[in-house]
Amino acid sequence: MKLSVDWLNEFTPLSQIPFEKVLEKINTSICEIDDAEEFKLHLSSVITVKIKSLEKHPNAEKLQTTIATDGSKDYQIVTAATNVKVGDIVPLALPGTKLDGKEILDSELRGVRSQGMYCSEKELGLTLESSGVLIFPSDTTLGISVRKLFLWEDTILTIDNKSITHRPDLWNHFGFARELASQLQLPFNQFPFQAETKLESGNDGLSVTQSEHAHSYYVCSIQNVNIAPSIPKIKARLEKCGIRSINNVVDVSNYLLLELGQPTHFFDKERLQSTTFSVAKSAEGTSFPLLDDTTPKLPKDLLLIQNGNDPVALAGVMGGKDSAVIDSTKNIVMESAVFKREDVRFSIRKTNIRTESAVRYEKGLDSFTSLPVIRRAVQLLKENGNQNIKVYEPQGFNHTESKSVTIKTNLTFLRHKLGKNISQNEVTEILNRLGFTVTNQGEELSVLVPRYRQNYDVTIPEDLVEEIGRTIGYASIQTQAISMAVETPIRNPLRELERRVKNFLALEAGFSEVYNYSFASPTDAKLESSEESSSLKIANEMPDEHSLLRNSLFPGLIKQAKVNQDRFETINLFELGRTYHKEGKGSDLAEERRWLAILSLSKNKPSDLAAVESEFLCLRETISELFEYLNLPKFQWSKSNRNYFHPNASLVLSYDGIEIVELGILHTRYADDYDLKRRAILAKINMEKLVDVWEKQGRNSHFIPPSNFPQGQLDLSLLMNEKDSTESFANLVQTMKIPELESVFVQTIFKGDSVGEGKKSVTYRFQLMSYDKTFTQERFKELSDSLVETAKANGYSLR
């Protein structure tokens, strides 16, 4: 937001205070300033001059030599302009002026000295295109700068909008000056809201239908307007704040917006189809032309202004083109209203139209300004070239006229929150300066909030603490050490475990941690749960992709992988977060669960199943190493079935019979839904179950003294069908209860012509260890024979 210091001075004498102190007070007690810049400072050396003589250039056919005067000094100027003549008053850029990045020099053109350059409107920044030198009216004062002539001698403050998003009263010059006056203890001029206007009796046929869709809504008939350019004062102030001047009626509406922060709108009365106005919600597909030359199809329940049965404005956002003020307008209808901020925010979100009016409405304005703004508008219209207008009595309603907010608190509370022993007189004086009305009963305070701050801004005692604190200056509050006992912090096993797991994955395994929103779309919610009733919907309206709370961490990781799949060959991600599950419990609170989800995106083609299987086994090994790292070695992997995993690549890890981890390759139907080009291997760890196991088992010693005897191993190759599971025989061996058997795993899998079509050769490796004697050849043969017999007895063929 831009503010004119010259305009602020109209309400409070800031010129009495050093400008550096004003800026400091704004930054420390009100809001952040992004910039403070002199407006069009480079035009200070562009002055008004009158052409005294004009002759053809002696050495150039297309140039002219002129003598111009500023009233006290003459200048010789060479120009190529053809629209100037003797007696014209024109702008002259003196040597040293910079226009469009080029510096004007005192130089010679074809042997004739030129002491500057005449300027066009484009070179002065008045228009985008122009032809010829700008010629001023004949009564223009000579020798003054263009900045002074156009009322551009001003400093413009650029305010950081985010720092005043909670302060709708500051989004205008009047309100900002009021705040500055209170902070700097300067006098304040209330004149805009005290404008006196003579009104004609009657309503000129206008009527307004009562509606609950607006806090207030008024219309007023104004006759005998004359459309013309605005006066220099209004035109200059709009331009300095970044708004283009249109005409002397529309400019008044924009001027009021900047001056008082109250949006208004003017309709051409002759272009309206009815004299009745109402505020209503849109039907699906409603459409009418807007001022930005678009005709969008509106969704259901957007707030509209209806003229009879016709929509004429998107309430609080933008007016309609068919009823707008044009050059031939003679009679107008002025609208002044305050709409509910929720409705305006809804309109902004659904239409993606964000105007200066909408920005102010969405902050939450109070309706008390609706009528005074009409009086001020009439005063401005008369100043701006419409002295003969006839204004009729406003028609409408105000539902919140009697609203008031009173906050009860006490000095003890204020002192405790501030951390400073502030007196009752000081509290009362500060709040009174800020517009509050304070009633004291001993140390108890009853504070009436001013109308312009009672909506969403100052509503609880803590808000008063902030008002007092920023006014006295936070730097005046001494820093004190906290007085509290130093106690051993309560141990949080879950946090300890989370840190260990994250350290292992990030530092040992090389995975990258990501954070995703807890919001999800209906599509995301169906990945792990097909029942929509188990998803928790967000109460306030959100975009569809963020309408639910997530019940799975997988969609977020998959979307991260999709974004990065064309950028990185290796993508290994993990996320620690919560999921939310309603589980059909009706009005009961939803259940929160804590998970750690892992995604590893395959580096190989989706059709290369052997390579993908190898990557799957690699991630399984990483999770196994994690459990070893947590001192939980007695885990078991087993096959499982999850609808979102490939049916032949889905495992669960259990510990003491408790399922803690699930691991699998994402099913292709889900990979296609998320546009994944590569196979995604996913895993998730139930952190709540893991912490229970870790607390019971992770602190136990699982150390086994090493054997004094060498380790032995046996390999056995079996021929089986290609689709047979390799774990079946491994599980069978475990049931044999071989005392020396430490582990059994698949060493190699071979497929080829030598083993036959549809067959595979699987080599199992058996790790053997004896703790009481050295293995003998007899014992090796005995174990080998028993393994072979078991294989044959269960239908396996040796290879």
Question: Could you explain how this protein is built, in words?
Answer:
The chain is α+β, with helices and mostly antiparallel strands. The protein is 26% helix and 27% strand. It has 20 helices and 41 strands. A 7-stranded mixed β-sheet has the order 28-32-33-37-36-35-34, sandwiched between helices. It has a 5-stranded antiparallel β-sheet with strand order 5-4-3-6-11, with no helix packed on it. Strands 13-16-19-20-21 form a 5-stranded mixed β-sheet. It is elongated, with a radius of gyration of 40 Å. The relative contact order is 0.06. Residues 402-479 form the B5 domain. Tetramer of two alpha and two beta subunits. Keywords: Aminoacyl-tRNA synthetase, ATP-binding, Cytoplasm, Ligase, Magnesium, Metal-binding, Nucleotide-binding, Protein biosynthesis, RNA-binding, tRNA-binding.
